[in-house]
Amino acid sequence: MIHLDHVTKEFAPKRGLFDVSFTVEPGMVFGFIGPNGAGKSTAIRQLMGLIQADTGRATIGGFDCWNQSEEVKRLVGYLPGEINLPGDFTGEQVLQLMQKLHHSSPQRQQELLNRFPFETKTKIRKMSKGMKQKLALVGCFMKDAPVYLLDEPTSGLDPLMQEHFLDLIDIERQRGKAILMSSHHFPEMEKSCDRAALIKEGRIIVEADIHELVRSSRKQYTIEFGLEAEAEQFALQIGSQRLQKQVSFVTGHELTLNQIIHLLTAYDVRTIQSSADDLEHVFLHYYGEEESS
């Protein structure tokens, strides 16, 4: 449904998109992860037909995103990273305008307002960041489109509203929607995405099933020994650092976890602690590897 095929759009060296390809099928949530300036928003603008690729092709529903942008926009619910709405409009006026433009259902709008409640009679210029984000989310999803392009969708939302957003994403996935979402909020991406791509300086450095990404990351462990001498001996044995009775190490290099466990049977081990096995560690792991290579 969403397809980027070897797309390049260069603004400056290491700024833009460089030979980027990925596909998002119906019923899939695809996460785009990377720091500011990595190219996430550029890819989404490419799909919206807001910028033209130097080379390659972007399509949604089989329509060319640049040459057939009108057809593409009919299929897409778009949430930009920066919410710019007329300051003297009220939230109610903005939603009325969107309802007319998209011929959306009043019932759908009310369901979304129940999920993301805010004072609709407040003028945009008086709204907080969170209120503007809720307004934008309601406006985006009330279109009930087959495709959603979401750029930092939970920016400014409190934890409760973030959970409501994740519930909505799960519902839309089950309804067969194709969703591309960029975000810096790692727990949100891990909970909601089926696949993810890590992008740096305009290039995808890894793309995989979200759970495979997490499982394949190196894990850090800290072991506390009964005696400091044992900790020192074990640290020398595996070539790691020691702090008093504790030794920390990372699996995935010279020794596997099974090998470490076998070695530990000869020692008086008091505790073993592992680092959180989450997407943020994967992100730091891959970016660390890229910077050291």
TrEMBL record:
Does Acyltransferase count among this protein's keywords?
A: no
Keyword list, A-Z: ATP-binding, Nucleotide-binding, Transport
Which SMART domains does the record match to this protein? AAA
**Record InterPro entries:** AAA+_ATPase (IPR003593), ABC_transporter-like_ATP-bd (IPR003439), ABC_transporter-like_CS (IPR017871), ABC_transporter_ATP-binding (IPR050763), P-loop_NTPase (IPR027417)
The record places domain ABC transporter at 2-226
- Extent of the signal sequence: none
Question: Mind telling me which residue stretches traverse the membrane in this protein?
Answer: none
Source taxon at top rank: Bacteria
User: What family is reported?
Assistant: Belongs to the ABC transporter superfamily.
Protein name from the UniProt record: ABC transporter
Source organism of the structure? Exiguobacterium undae
